[in-house]
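Q&A log
Question type: sequence-to-structure
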Amino acid sequence: MFTKTVRKLSFLFLRLFLITAALLAITSDKVINTMEVEAANPEESLGSWDLVNSPVSANLKSVSMLSKSDGWIVGEGGIILRWNGNNWSTFVSPTTLTLYDVHMISANNGWAVGDYGKILHWDGVSWSQFDSPTGASLFSMDFLSPTEGWAVGSSTMPCSYGQSGTILKWDGSAWTTIVDSALYIRYRTVEALANNNVWVMGIYQEADCPPLDYHSPVLVIAHWDGQVWFNKIKTQCNNWINSLALMPDNTGWAGGTICLAACDTADNGTLHPVPAGIISDYNIVSINIVAADDVWAVGGDHLSLPIKSFTTHWNGSSWEAIPNPGNQVLSGVSMISTNDGWAVGYGGTILHYMNDTTTYTYLPLATR
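Response status: OK
Response body:
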């Protein structure tokens, strides 16, 4: 009796096991197929730019994000704003001079530069004025490490009404002037790839005195090889370049007055302008590279009515203009990741970019 019962139970168990295995095989095939479809068709569409409440109405010049909960903005009148993960708020500033660029190295180490050689340093607690060796307006910075950085700008020369290019170097303890007599030059942007590979771009424009007679501006590219700065006058994008963004392979992008160009510094700083139709009459003011196939450029045109605000994205093969709700020229962009970033501009404009790429896996339900 006991033996028969055991045999019956074993037989029933075997049947249940085989049926369950068959169902699991069918179900698992469906799950695998579903997951394969999702992997083969990732979210390709871009996210959107949204207008964020700003505590100021002054023109904002630059933004530097460290994380989703830590970022800084600087602008006219020495304005400094801080992001805490929930909102932007004003922060105590030691100057009323316009700040053009902010660069955060870490949560307790950051720099800002502006008019008349103004240099500010963030130590994790407060912003304070730092000794500056120049009275020239500084427009851009870049750092290789906490102990090696560069800042560039220009000053107006008496009588000639021209510009005198200025390049400063940070050695970990002090800023020193490396170049201060590059006549008729305005250095606008700097990118440091290595201690012997630093690139600067701007314009060269002669001015006679008297009478005041400006010649047509041409692009100037300066390169540091670890020993000497070399200036090169170029014919591409004949006007000033506002922003330069490079990758470790010495390629990248440059943007300026009605100009957006692919840059190949390995080829002597050669620029390959994007067809004018891509940017129309917009000015590119700031560029941020996330990856070779993920680049953002922002700018606009404040002389037209209505004012034009411009955001465009490079996907690795083409540039695409992306709408934004701002109606002001954008001056700075800083991406935290492919799916999260910020842009700032005139009139206190602050834009936040989000791309929700969350995917969901739906498990099959058992049915009778």
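Response note: Residues 140 and 189 are 5 Å apart (CA to CA).
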